[in-house]
Specification:
The chain has 193 residues and is of the alpha+beta class. The chain has one domain. It has helices at residues 2-29, 74-87, 120-123, 129-146, and strands spanning 47-54, 61-68, 103-109, 112-117, 152-157, 160-161, 175-176.
Length: 193
């Protein structure tokens, strides 16, 4: 009986060792788990911008704060900013761009941005020297004021530089910002009594 017990005990030990050995070899033969990286895109926070529209009388520019969607590159941000400018004021100020105008492209070159509009920028513009001034400087001041490295804006219409929008303000060369249009015009001095 003792021999049978030893024999059975020996078989159990051999079986256990064989099981561990087989498990070890099977574990080694398995391919290691491939981990799939999960891409987490950072959330782009909205960007605060300052847009310039005409005052209620259409005589000077007033600023209006707005948020545009977050963007990865400045071209996208510029297009968003210009689209908001085309949409018009949310605070009741006069529009400076025709709502039918569309942005065809934006090109950045050092401190210069070229903005190409559809023909509606000209065709739907009301004209007049003051209106043209406010349009040109609304665009320029809005871009230069929100992108610190920009100094000049070139306005194109369907890929071409025009001499003027409606015959008054030259736009055939890059334009520098002029924030003096953001103040009410001086109407002269009052005579002293």
């Amino acid at each position: 009986m003792k021999k049978v017990t030893i024999y059975i005990l020996g078989l159990v030990v051999v079986g256990v060792l064989a099981g561990y050995g087989i498990g070890y070899f099977l574990k080694e033969a398995r391919q290691p788990e491939q981990r799939v990286p999960i891409l987490v895109e950072p959330e782009l926070l909205p960007r605060d911008v300052e847009l310039f529209f005409a005052d209620s009388q259409g005589t000077y520019l007033v600023s209006e704060g707005r948020q545009i969607a977050g963007c990865e590159d400045d071209r996208e941000c510029i297009i968003s900013l210009l689209s908001e400018l085309v949409k018009g004021s949310q605070a009741g100020h006069q529009p400076v761009l025709p709502t039918q105008a569309r942005i065809l492209s934006v090109e950045l070159e050092n401190d210069l941005v070229r903005v190409d509009f559809t023909r509606q920028l000209v065709d739907q513009h009301p004209g007049g020297s003051l209106s043209e001034l406010l349009t040109v400087y609304s665009l320029t001041n809005s871009l230069v004021g929100n992108f610190s490295y920009l100094r000049q804006v070139q306005i194109l219409v369907e890929g071409e530089p025009l001499q003027t929008l409606k015959g008054h303000v030259r736009i055939d060369q890059p334009i520098y910002a002029d924030f003096s249009y953001s103040h009410p015009p001086e109407l002269g001095t009052q005579p002293e009594k």
